[in-house]
Amino acid sequence: MVWKKITLTYEYQGKKNTLTGNTPLVNEHLSLQTQENSLILSNKVPIRLLSLEVIIPWNYTKKDRIFVHGFQSWSDSREFTQQEKIPGLPPHLRFAYAQYHLEFYGDYHFYDYTRKKGQFHSHGWTLSGQGENWHLVGSLDENSAYTIFEHHPEKRVLRIIRDVEGWEMNAGSITNLLSLFFTSGNLSYAQKRYFEMYGLSPSQLPKISGWTSWYNYYTNISEEIILSNLKSFKEKKLPINIFQIDDGYQTAVGDWLSLKPSFPHGMKYIADAIHEAGFRAGLWLAPFICESKSIIYQKHPEWILRYDDGSPVIAGYSENWNGDFYALDLDHPEVKNYLREVFHTVLHEWGFDMVKLDFLYAASIKPSYGKTRASQMAQALSWIRELCKDKTILGCGVPITSALGKVDYCRIGCDVGLDWEDIRPARIHFRERISTIKAITTTLGRFPLNRIGFINDPDVFILRETNNRLSHEQKYTLYMVNQLFGGLLFTSDNVGEYSSQTENLYRLQFPLAEPPVESLTQHHEIYNFRPRSSSLQAVGPVKIYASYYTGWVKLPFCSAFLIINTGNKTLSQKLPEGIFFDPLQENYHQKTYTVPPYATRILLHILPSERWQYGGSTEHLFPGHGFLSLACTNTHLSYELHSHAFSGGKLFLVSLQDSPLEYQGKPLSIHKHPYGFFYTSIEL
After folding, report:
1. pTM
2. In Å, how far are 230, 260, 269, 438, 608 from 213, measured between CA atoms?
3. Mind listing the pLDDT tens digit for each residue in 647-675?
4. Which of 97, 440, 487, 539 is the most exposed place for a label (fewest CB within 10 A)?
5. C-alpha separations of 374 from 137, 221, 367, 378, 556 in Å
6. What CA–CA distance (Å, rounded) separates 142 from 161?
7. For 218, what's the count of Cα atoms within 13 Å in the CB-facing half-sphere?
8. Cβ atoms < 10 Å from Cβ of 109
9. Residue 472 in 3-state DSSP?
């Protein structure tokens, strides 16, 4: 490997020092050497690191796309073309967003966006390439310091920024400052190889489904609302796994053991009710922050993390939480004692089985106590893991590279909204905004992470007819993307209010399935988005990223061609060779297929033969997964459905010959299709 230029800045006895050049870099304080793909620092005196940058050559072609991995759960992650850019929060509009402290939600406060076309930065790892040929470079240590890869295709170099700020080293230390890994291959293989080298073990936890209160009721929850929704799931015998209470039960963020009057019987009462219904109980916490009206903020100001001038470290702003909220000092012994009590109470006295831990990025805002942002984050998550032991952790709002291997399930996209896009934060390029389309594209961008260090949580899907402004196709695409690419499937819908048609659609996910997705390809498009709300028309159109995706999905009896259209235009998609069955329309297609705006379709590749065989079905979102067995022997059909499969679907069978077929001793009606094969169907 060629190291073109290295720049190390550090502080010794209050004086700033900089070394620049190629290795070895040596002065009276330290020595910096290269060792294969690593940088090794030996320091003779105690120092405090400030920054480290490395320039290496990188080959690009003009058609190469660049995969950008965002900083935390809510930061967008996807492929970019070299005609795009990441603007970041615009400095000239700071007056519009400064009061909301948006810079602390992402990486804006410790990384300077280039804001130039074709220049992109990526956290932890990155790739460039196209088709089946991608080149990956990744950091092998994100616990000591975060690594940012900044692409410069026009100069054919990669700038590597190691966030070493605040890293204090004793005299005589020998430290690996940076270790890199390189590989090539298709997108999925390259990332899988990287994660293997990173030392991550594939998660063996199950794919699960459940309910959470947030995306329907938000903070307006009560014992009555929770138990009413629980009753609906129990009465309808819906086989979910987790029933989770989100934000709104506590009197203030930070005061987790102080409950609102709307929960008169306490949280153990509700956890017991959830268990009685046959589900595991989950509870939302944001353990690293507190709001100003909380008791712990008012009585223990020393618990708040502070800057050198004594001002508190603000972690963000929420109208739901009385304005600003603050980062706790996780090195303070009393804070640790308090959080030990909180987790013991929640998990062992109240009896919750899972905790959703949110706004975790707050532990990485300010380097403190001689540790970098990454080191603080890694230590905080490891400590939380010790507190929770074998209880399930769902991480959210967390730097992804820190969460790998430390949480069981992890949010890998932003919050889903009640609209397709929120135009106001989109206009200022806020990457961590609430956005349904961005949640979908980031779920697709991060899908290779699933079961690598944790299981992906793509956030909720919404099927309900009320309290949202999503179209049917938008809701269906959100539902399908979550089912295909996620491992935790939550909704906040009141299923007791579902129409029969919507309830049937909800039931189609059972039994939960994990059909492998192969060769997912992004086809890029940028379009102007204009909000439908007349009150926002003055904002004007905004360029929103959209794309359509094509790929193959492996099903029990066939393969399926997947088309996901996130754009606002009708798509005429050329189909591969063969005959395709559309489960939604219950018909067959060849050559082309028309996909409406915002729609997703999964088309089954059917290969008729001289004998009767599977020709499609509608018993499951992913046809075939609802069958325990299916066979056509001579002229007889037999099958067995899974107990959780949708029994109101159909089974289609095809043959190239007009031969008889019977089920349970009764002959089935045979029809000839215009494409030349014969088909029949039965009600399941």
Report:
1. 0.96
2. 11, 16, 17, 22, 46
3. 999 999 999 999 999 999 999 999 999 99
4. 539
5. 19, 35, 9, 6, 43
6. 12
7. 9
8. 14
9. helix
